[in-house]
DNA sequence: AAGATAGGCAACCGCCGGACG
DNA sequence: CCGTCCGGCGGTTGCCTATCT
């Protein structure tokens, strides 16, 4: 029509976009998504990039069905925390909040249907037909129900041991100075994807566990709470990215 | 074999809170 | 302090595939 201004892309990501994103995340780290979105040339929002990375491209992600252990853990944690998916996800290395959320939804749907069916027969009380997710701030109202479900999958109560009442007071990293230095679009706007790819990326694709990533992925997934404080990854990663980026831009 | 339904998953939306100028 | 921006989170939607009838 009148304007030539391209609209932000939406919908499914192409493989090319994925590669592009992986490269630029490799270069600049998992921050400043807006910036990455701009300089990468991807016609996506920063949010969209972040989501794609976190839910799909992150090298530490597990694939495939939830294991029985994971299922138990989800039930257990949900009974304690409610719909705090990201919080729950932190206890399940390699699983994303989105994945857990999806799992829970289908799980609950199944349960609801089973109950609807069973409501006819007396094995379930009809009061548990509807499940309402507890609000994030309060404990779930139907702990009894949850407990039954845990029993269903054969959970043992030792599970509750070892979860500290989360003090995830991860303090912010003041990286903005570094960023200010490197993150001017002009400094990188000349990057072509091909250059980035050659320079930064492993040739293998898809990016799932490549040596380059294993370091950060394992660490990042496992790093939680105390460990995170002891072993802050972001700065290190950023510094290396920064150095790499500098080399790259020269 | 074909249509209907359910399940699984990726992605978007809107809100919120923290950081920063 | 206040306004703005950005990233994170939870809820929701929509599409694709598998399974059922």
From TrEMBL:
Ranges where the record places region Disordered? 107-144
User: Which intervals hold domain HTH myb-type?
Assistant: 5-61, 62-112
Query: Residue spans with biased composition (Low complexity)?
Result: 121-135
Keywords linked to the UniProt accession: DNA-binding, Nucleus, Repeat, Transcription, Transcription regulation
Give GO MF terms, alphabetically: DNA-binding transcription factor activity; sequence-specific DNA binding
Domain Myb-like: from-to ranges: 5-57, 58-108
**Main subcellular localisation:** nucleus
Q: Where in the cell is it found?
A: Nucleus
Q: Which InterPro entries match?
A: EOBI/EOBII-like_plant, Homeodomain-like_sf, Myb_dom, SANT/Myb
Record's GO cellular component, any one?
A: nucleus
Role, per record: Transcription factor.
Q: Which PANTHER family match?
A: MYB TRANSCRIPTION FACTOR-RELATED-RELATED, MYB-RELATED PROTEIN MYBAS1
User: This protein is called what?
Assistant: Myb-related protein MYBAS2-like isoform X1
Q: Which organism is it from?
A: Phoenix dactylifera (Date palm)
